[in-house]
Amino acid sequence: MPPSASHPFLHLLFLVLLVFPGLGAFAAAVGPRRSILRALDEGNGKPDYAVDLNSSSFDNVLNESPASFAIVEFFAHWCPACRNYKPHYEKVARLFNGPNAVHPGIILMARVDCAKKMNTNLCNKFSVGHYPMLLWGPPHKFTLGGWDSKQEKSEIQSIDDGRTAERLLNWINKRIGSSFSLDDDKFENENTLPWNASDPEQIARAIYDVEEATAQAFDIIVDNKRIRKETRVAFIKFFQLLVAHHPSRRCRKGTAGILVNFDDLWPSDYSNNSREGSLSHMQDGARSFSICGKEVPRGYWIFCRGSRNETRGFSCGLWVLLHSLSVRAGDGEAQQTFITICDFIHNFFMCEECRRHFHEMCSSVSTPFETTRAFVLWLWRSHNKVNERLIKVEKELRTEDPRYPKIIWPPKQLCESCSNSTSNQSGGMMPEWNEDEVFKFLVAYYGSTIISSYKDETITSSRKDESVVDDVITSNHAVAVPVGAALAIALASCTFGALACFWRTQQKNRKYLHQLHSLKNV
Ligand SMILES: Cc1cc2nc3c(=O)[nH]c(=O)nc-3n(C[C@H](O)[C@H](O)[C@H](O)COP(=O)(O)OP(=O)(O)OC[C@H]3O[C@@H](n4cnc5c(N)ncnc54)[C@H](O)[C@@H]3O)c2cc1C
């Protein structure tokens, strides 16, 4: 029987709620936070684009938002003017919130119902004196304190002229120098996309794309039954690399979970098992693991969003993931990381031409990489070789994304000191690089800028458990991670009484020692 991840968890959840009924409220509060990128359907058939916040979800949602700005509407559900204002607010929110956002990742539009008792203190904190009242500011600034109209030099600002959708959008356009229109539509927005999504500010949001690319890669592998006898090692090694160096904490945690259960999910005789029924059962088991958490964005592509439906997306996210991994590997890990990435692309990237070209580039390396620098620069050069080829191909075939044509990268606007000459990089001319500067730039761009702000607050684990998971998933000794993680968490759990021991009992069934043995053999 393949393991079902959900059963033990549901049992545990039930027990937790039984013992700590207050956690139910906590879970409800976490709910809206997780639905940050979703449009809600209130039952009238029309989804709400603006995100409903309350005193419990307010800080979490705003702190974790990838958007540069937020607008919060304070209203009261009994206020007739507010009810009439809602369609106006929604018209603007449609542009910025939800999976079909025309301009994602720029403005988070939210609302708080001040007529609900639980929100009284929150609304008082923001000196709400009339309904509806709109405030504007960087999302996290809303969580640092309140707002008062007399306050000077606050980054939170009252929107004084947003009474209709048109006026609100005009106010926004004036405030950030954009030219959004209420008629803007997804993927027909070539002329209205406000910023070059590859600017340094945008890369900070690429964490969402990296998470989405990771989840999509896992789906593709599972759906296409790519884990076979001959590919098991490549998969395990790549996942070990992710556990150690994925920029997103929740993906590190998810990949560790998959490795811990690897032998159950894909027993060594998995590919020999010819019965279609059991294969699809195994697929279901694998699918029940959320590699980057249950709420990983799907189809959002913020940094990697093309101006057309069919451009960019997954392969862009995959490149960003690979570069992020390369700058995180230490000097001693450079060669192993190189082999792991090459093997992963070769076995699991199902674009035939891509993996063939990449394999050729991997095979042409004759000297082992002894430093992070050497490997990071190799990957950057290889990506530029792909760019160089695609500049020509896409121009000829007219398949390029007009908003994001391939260029030799990084352009001068991103890194002034990276190249010495003024060659035509967008025309495919390779400039004279200053590789020390390029390396510094890549480390900053893919290292410190892309970090996960995700803070895991599962109701099933205590702080002590969490710190054990933290220690394990930030470990650099990837080979020891999966088994070590399981054992360490289980041991720590037992100090937290019956609930934790229940969980430990579930974990015990996962045959650690067998896994220890099989993973050590990898
Ligand atoms: C391993 C691999 C091999 C591929 N091989 C092929 C192929 O042979 N043929 C094919 O048609 N497509 C190939 N692709 C897909 C192709 O490279 C692009 O990913 C796709 O066309 C989408 O392009 P994009 O404009 O989103 O930018 P991408 O090329 O995907 O780049 C994503 C982002 O990375 C940054 N970037 C660009 N160049 C570099 C660089 N040199 N170093 C670091 N960062 C950079 C930029 O910010 C860019 O927006 C491959 C993809 C991968 C992951």
Description:
The protein contains 21 helices and seven strands. The protein is mainly alpha-helical and 522 residues long. A five-stranded mixed beta sheet has the order 3-5-4-6-7, with helices on both faces. It has a two-stranded antiparallel ribbon with strand order 1-2. Helix 18 runs antiparallel to helix 19 (481-493). The two termini are 24 Å apart. Mean pLDDT is 76; it is low at 1-43, 188-198 and 453-522. The structure holds flavin-adenine dinucleotide. Flavin-adenine dinucleotide (FAD) binds next to helix 13, helix 15 and helix 16. Pfam families: Evr1_Alr, Thioredoxin. Its EC number is 1.8.3.2. This is Sulfhydryl oxidase.
Write the layout of secondary structure elements.
Blueprint: H1 6-19, H2 22-34, E1 40-41, E2 47-48, E3 51-53, H3 58-64, E4 69-75, H4 80-96, E5 107-113, H5 120-125, E6 133-137, E7 157-158, H6 165-176, H7 200-203, H8 206-223, H9 232-245, H10 249-260, H11 262-265, H12 276-287, H13 314-328, H14 334-348, H15 352-363, H16 372-397, H17 435-448, H18 463-473, H19 481-493, H20 497-508, H21 512-520
Parallel strand pairs: 3-5, 4-5
Antiparallel strand pairs: 1-2, 4-6, 6-7
The site of flavin-adenine dinucleotide has 23 residues, from helix 13, helix 15 and helix 16.
